[in-house]
């Protein structure tokens, strides 16, 4: 018996850009990102590049007639809800795309001029041709170098970025997102992006990631925004989601090629896909603890098992026991089930540890005393003790301070961090591991040492 098809309806987005044989930028990055953001990606290729993570080795522009044929084919068949442009290359191509502008809804113009490697991707005479295309754009997304070419302003401050955005809006763009990845503002610890419309100015901030693996970052951002617009998001929501995705894609780059690598276009979808398995691993650890009765390790505040998804950046991206694990007359039991966002203190600690070692995905908090200290000495890794009397008192700050101090003192990545407590806080130890099995084994090893005393 034949099975019935079960079609899925999905919004369609389109990219008009060059091909990157290295897969990190261009059409390849655009389509990966659109798929990750829930849109069906279509394309019109402007040029073919011989490119990898080290740079651009060659470029071949397709005839304009071939570009027009691709655009016509897509628009004739698909109900396109958003379009982004990338590498256009020549004035003729820019003008050709602008000629279709009235048929390109939610047009996001990424004015690609220079590759991350420094290779030029736009003929100098094509720069002025961008004005009309920008005038038809819903959003234009220049970086600092592109902003300087388009407006004559080399942005060095947030005020400069706002002025660039205002000038681009004066050209006719509905909005401009001036990207701050190349702008060194203040102590350079933040990346600041400025979204400007005729009526508003909004600023988006993210901690700067020290990496050279930014190949494809502009393509990924503009594609993510276009995909979100195709789904019906308003402009601000689409930009905020795109900026958040790029921040995570840069934080967890792909180590591919001999060059710096590539941003991780699929990072958010991969992370979402790992949520269920992460919760299952936490549940398995909890069941082992109940079965082996870890009562002697449960602190007065209760025990928790916390598991982070592979690309977790926030406590709500960790799975934990809601209500913690508590002692009973017959052993231990979880108060409720495992859910994401159920832990505060241990989750903040684990997320802070991941700043130093992103492989650390699981943590357990236990009581601490002299007997536990003796048992910790037998663990398969470094144990660090921290006196936290001088730790900051803001929410989450103590946990970040504990993690930072512990990793600063450790020779490598510690398997246990002892907090001797302070006013109103009992002494505890937090056990760390890359996987659920290992964190369970380390906890049970301490439990077994206490039992055999």
From TrEMBL:
Short name of any one Pfam family annotated for the protein: Phos_pyr_kin
Classification via SUPFAM superfamilies: AraD/HMP-PK domain-like, Ribokinase-like
GO MF term (any one): hydroxymethylpyrimidine kinase activity
Enzyme class of the recorded protein, top EC level: transferase
Domain Thiamine-phosphate synthase ThiN: 282-443
Alphabetical keyword list: ATP-binding, Kinase, Nucleotide-binding, Transferase
Protein name: Bifunctional hydroxymethylpyrimidine kinase/phosphomethylpyrimidine kinase
Classification of source organism: Archaea, Methanobacteriati, Methanobacteriota, Stenosarchaea group, Halobacteria
């Amino acid at each position: 018996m034949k099975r019935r098809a079960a079609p899925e309806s999905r919004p369609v987005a389109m990219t008009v850009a060059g091909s990157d044989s290295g897969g990190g930028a261009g059409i390849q990055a655009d389509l990966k990102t659109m798929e990750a953001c829930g849109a069906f990606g279509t394309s019109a290729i402007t040029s073919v590049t011989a490119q990898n993570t080290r740079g651009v080795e060659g470029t071949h522009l397709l005839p304009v007639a071939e570009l027009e044929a691709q655009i016509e084919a897509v628009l004739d068949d698909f109900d396109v809800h958003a379009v982004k442009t990338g590498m256009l290359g020549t004035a003729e191509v820019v003008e050709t795309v602008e000629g279709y502008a009235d048929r390109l809804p939610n047009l996001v113009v990424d004015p690609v001029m220079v590759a991350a490697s420094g290779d030029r991707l736009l003929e100098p005479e094509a720069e002025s041709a961008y004005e009309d295309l920008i005038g038809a754009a819903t959003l234009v997304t220049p970086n600092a170098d592109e902003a300087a070419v388009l407006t004559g302003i080399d942005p060095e401050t947030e005020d400069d970025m706002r002025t660039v955005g205002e000038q681009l809006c004066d050209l006719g763009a509905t909005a401009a997102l001036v990207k701050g990845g190349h702008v060194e503002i203040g102590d350079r610890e933040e990346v600041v992006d400025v979204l400007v419309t005729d009526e508003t100015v909004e600023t988006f901030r993210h901690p700067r990631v020290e990496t050279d693996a930014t190949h494809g970052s502009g393509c990924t951002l503009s594609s993510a925004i276009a995909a979100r617009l195709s789904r019906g998001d308003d402009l601000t929501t689409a930009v905020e989601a795109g900026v958040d995705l790029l921040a995570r894609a840069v934080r967890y780059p792909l180590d591919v090629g001999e060059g710096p690598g590539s941003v991780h276009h699929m990072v958010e979808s991969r992370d979402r896909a790992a949520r269920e398995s992460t919760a299952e691993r936490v549940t398995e650890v909890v069941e082992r603890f109940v079965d082996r009765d870890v009562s002697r390790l449960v602190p007065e505040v209760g025990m928790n098992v916390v598991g982070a998804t592979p690309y977790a950046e926030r406590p709500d991206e960790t799975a934990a026991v809601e209500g913690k694990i508590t002692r009973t007359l017959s052993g231990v039991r979880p108060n409720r089930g495992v859910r994401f966002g159920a832990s505060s203190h241990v989750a903040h600690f684990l997320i802070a540890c991941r700043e130093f070692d992103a492989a650390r995905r699981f943590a357990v908090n236990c009581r601490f005393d002299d007997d536990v200290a003796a048992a910790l000495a037998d663990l398969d890794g470094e144990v660090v003790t921290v006196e936290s009397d001088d730790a900051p008192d803001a929410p989450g700050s103590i946990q970040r301070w504990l993690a930072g101090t512990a990793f600063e003192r450790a020779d490598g990545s510690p398997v246990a961090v002892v907090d001797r407590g302070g006013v109103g806080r009992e002494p505890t130890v937090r056990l760390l591991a890359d996987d659920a099995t290992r964190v369970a084994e380390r906890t049970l090893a301490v439990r077994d040492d206490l039992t055999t005393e």
